[in-house]
Amino acid sequence: MTDSLSGGCQCGAIRFQAQRLKDNSHVCHCRMCQKAAGNFFMALVGVPLEDFTWTRGQPSFFASSVKVKRGFCANCGTPLFFRHQDSQHISMTIGSFDHPENIPLAFELGIEAKLPQIAQLGSIRNYGTTEENDPEGSKEIKQSSAQHPDQDTKDWTHSASQNF
């Protein structure tokens, strides 16, 4: 797999570096992963512990079972990892990498909980790009975005308003 990949959370408080990835990139459909991701599945790839470094901040975690911790950013809530205490690798969320498009999937598991909506993805109506068709005003959102850029930065202090 690709060498030396960086990534982090949405707000930039947590950043990481992976020198090497395992060949186990996958989506997990199990109910725990669905809840942890707040989505239909969680996409993960392993990084050997000796090839992994937190370069900014430290994640918070939730012990989702006796031997498993799931890490996230306490600032913005971005899911970051799954870690079994007996494993010599950490499974990072593929979407938290700066360039997730460079991490092809190898398999899926947890299919006992695979949701039927997954089968709809190739056949439902396609509204095109968010920039052209977002009914809630993607231009304004993009201009005021507090999302960390998909690259390492020396520091990051931008924050969005908390008013709803």
Oligomeric grouping of the chains: single chain
Query: What's the average pLDDT?
Result: 88
| CATH fold title | Metal Binding Protein, Guanine Nucleotide Exchange Factor, Chain A
Radius of gyration: 17 Å
Q: Work out the number of β strands.
A: 10
Unreliable segments (pLDDT under 50, ≥5 consecutive)? none
Overall tally of structural domains = 1
Strand numbers in spatial order across the main sheet: 6-7-8-9-4-3-10
Detailed description of the structure:
The strands form 2 sheets. A 7-stranded mixed beta sheet has the order 6-7-8-9-4-3-10. Strands 1-2-5 form a 3-stranded antiparallel beta sheet, with no helix packed on it. The chain is built from 3 helices and 10 strands; from the N terminus they run βββαβββββββαα. It has helices at residues 31-37, 130-133, 138-143, and strands spanning 5-8, 15-18, 26-28, 42-48, 52-56, 60-65, 68-72, 79-84, 89-93, 107-109. The protein is 10% helix and 29% strand. The protein has one domain (5-121): Metal Binding Protein, Guanine Nucleotide Exchange Factor, Chain A (Beta Complex), CATH 2.170.150. A hairpin with a 6-residue loop joins strand 1 (5-8) and strand 2 (15-18).
Write the layout of secondary structure elements.
Layout: E1 5-8, E2 15-18, E3 26-28, H1 31-37, E4 42-48, E5 52-56, E6 60-65, E7 68-72, E8 79-84, E9 89-93, E10 107-109, H2 130-133, H3 138-143
Parallel strand pairs: 3-10
Antiparallel strand pairs: 1-2, 2-5, 3-4, 4-9, 6-7, 7-8, 8-9
